[in-house]
Amino acid sequence: MVFRTLLALGVVVALLPACGGGSDGGGGPAPAGGGPCAPPGGQAPLGAASTTKAPTPTAGTPGGTLRAGNPNGKAAVPAEARAVDTSRPNRVVGNGTPASCTGKAVATAVAAGGVITFSCGPDPITITMTQTAKVKNSTKRVVLDGGGKVTLSGAGKRRILYMNTCDDAQGPPPGDCTNQDHPQLTVQNLTFASGSSIGADPDPEVTNGGGGGALYVRGGRLKVVNSRFVKNRCDSGGPDLGGAAIRVLDQNRDLPVYVVSSTFGGAAGQGGACSNGGALSSIGVSWVILNSLFSHNEAIGYGANEAANGTPGGGNGGAIYCDGNTFTLRIAGTLMERNHAREGGGAIFYVSNDRSGTLRIESSTLRRNPSDEFETIPGIFYRANGEAQITGSKIT
To answer: What does the pLDDT look like over 70-105, one tens digit per residue?
Structure first.
């Protein structure tokens, strides 16, 4: 746990061989054979991603308009992190008209599982969720592809998408609920707007859990590709509680969550706000974030972690909050700017309690991410064994 007082850790930035140069994450691709920029090996495929050429960003729904992420990002994307081919969906939301695309239809399709696309007419559409879409524990995979035209909105009232293998209401999982190889959830070519988990119980042992205004995930696997998250919210106070856009608590075999070419915030008034982690939050979960954009997200709690007397706690990780023991965070080809933490880590709060985790930032730009109370690197609070590995990046 990290206290409100600034810790004099003497962190030194390690200047390792870079993947490539250029501002705003404009470095070259990672070497194919390994090295500091190569993707981790031995990871099981997530969903049905191609092992050769990635599908187009709007696979299965031609004419999409969404272009998310950092356009200057050049980080190599491993096959398992690419968009899933949805040209042969298991089910389609809508019959070609906007009126046929309802929140109830989305929730029904997610509960049934499989590859899901949308047919809502030629124009972009916002679908207001009247209930949270929940993934069943018996489902092998759910792929939700908006074709670049679909926005799912929580209307500031509810969480948009929920997957929790420890929630018996979604069906009993076999064995250890925190270490299941399914469901495998992929969201791609979608916008998630105005999701809210305000009022959800923050205790991770309670099935609903706190945080995750747009997506809450526990168990299985999660992948996010070419998607945008705007104006999502979770509770404004509390230690550890976080993730205005996405909250993740467990992943199968501790494999990472992939976030690829996605935007969190992106403009003034569009960012997420939560006690901790204005975009992402996790405990003991690894992440690989590639060619993405984080801006105008806020950690709005105060009192830090553990909470100072007389405070609700929180305020750490304006964009990303990561806590726990052994976990990794790799950020490559990504731009993080104008995120803000009321306490520590205007862009990133990273604490490995047993000092066994690692933080790597490659070919990325982090700038103007104020931390009101404490940081160890500009815009970052870092606590682990050894140095943060920062290569080919600009951090100011």
So the answer is: 999 999 999 999 999 999 999 999 999 999 999 999
For residue 199, count CB atoms less than 10 angstroms from its CB and return exposed for 0-12, middle for 13-18, buried for 19 or more.
Answer: exposed
Nearest to 380 by CA among 321, 312, 304: 321
Tell me the two tokens of residue 325. 């023991």
Characterise 355 by phi-psi region: left (phi > 0), alpha (psi -120 to 50), beta (else): left
How far is 285 from 322, CA to CA, in rounded Å? Answer: 8
The structure tokens listed for 396 are: 């100011």
| Lookup result for tokens 């403009």 | 267
pLDDT of residue 5: 37
CA-based radius of gyration for the chain:
19
> What are the tens digits of pLDDT across the range 170-190?
998 767 888 989 999 999 999
**What kind and span of H or E run contains 319?**
none
Say how far apart CA 237 and CA 342 lie, in whole Å: 11
The DSSP line for 139-172 is -SEEEEEEEEEEEEE-TTTS-SEEEETT-GGG-P
Q: How many CB atoms neighbour CB 42 within 10 A?
A: 6
Out of 23-27, 270-274, 380-384, which region has the weakest mean confidence (pLDDT)? 23-27
